[in-house]
Amino acid sequence: MSKIKVKTGWPRVIVGFAAESQKLIKNAQSKLEEKGLDLIVANDITAVDAGFAVDTNRVTLLDREGGSEELPLMTKAAVAEEVLQRVIELLSATDDRS
């Protein structure tokens, strides 16, 4: 498996998604590190009220700094808004360090 490290030039935030059926946080954390991601959205695909066959999701956001935030059950659109907000925050933090 190749490692993805394409951060060159202007500030970027690389987001990954981990659909997991077991060891949600451990597996997502491994993917975050292996792929050099800034943020990963960990999704437990065994949850009955979240995932592929429904309009809602419950995810945990993990970042490269060790942060973790478990989001409550919400619509997939609301999850997308939360992920986008986190990307904006990460880009802002990158700009502040420049």
Task: Walk me through this protein's architecture.
There is one protein chain. The protein is α+β, with helices and mostly antiparallel strands and 98 residues long. The chain has one domain (15-97): 3-Layer(aba) Sandwich (Rossmann fold), CATH 3.40.50.10300. Helices cover 34% and strands 24% of the residues. It is built from two helices and six strands. The protein has helices spanning 24-34, 76-97; strands at residues 15-20, 39-44, 56-57, 59-63, 68-70, 74-75. Strands 1-2-4-5 form a four-stranded mixed beta sheet, with helices on both faces. A two-stranded antiparallel ribbon has the order 3-6. The radius of gyration is 14 Å and the shape is globular.
Top keywords for this entry?
98 residues; alpha+beta; Rossmann fold; 4-stranded mixed sheet; two-stranded antiparallel ribbon
CATH topology: Rossmann fold
Strand order of the largest sheet: 1-2-4-5
Low-confidence stretches: none
- Assess the beta-strand content as a share of residues: 15-25%
Number of domains: 1
Average pLDDT taken over every residue: 88
Termini separation comes to 32 Å
CATH class: Alpha Beta
Write down the Rg: 14 Å
Topology as a string of helices (H) and strands (E): EHEEEEEH
Which geometry do the CA atoms define? globular
What is the correct CATH architecture? Answer: 3-Layer(aba) Sandwich
* SS class: alpha+beta
Biggest sheet, open or closed, and with what strands and sense?
A: 4 strands, mixed
- CATH homologous superfamily classification: CoaB-like
Helix segment count?
2
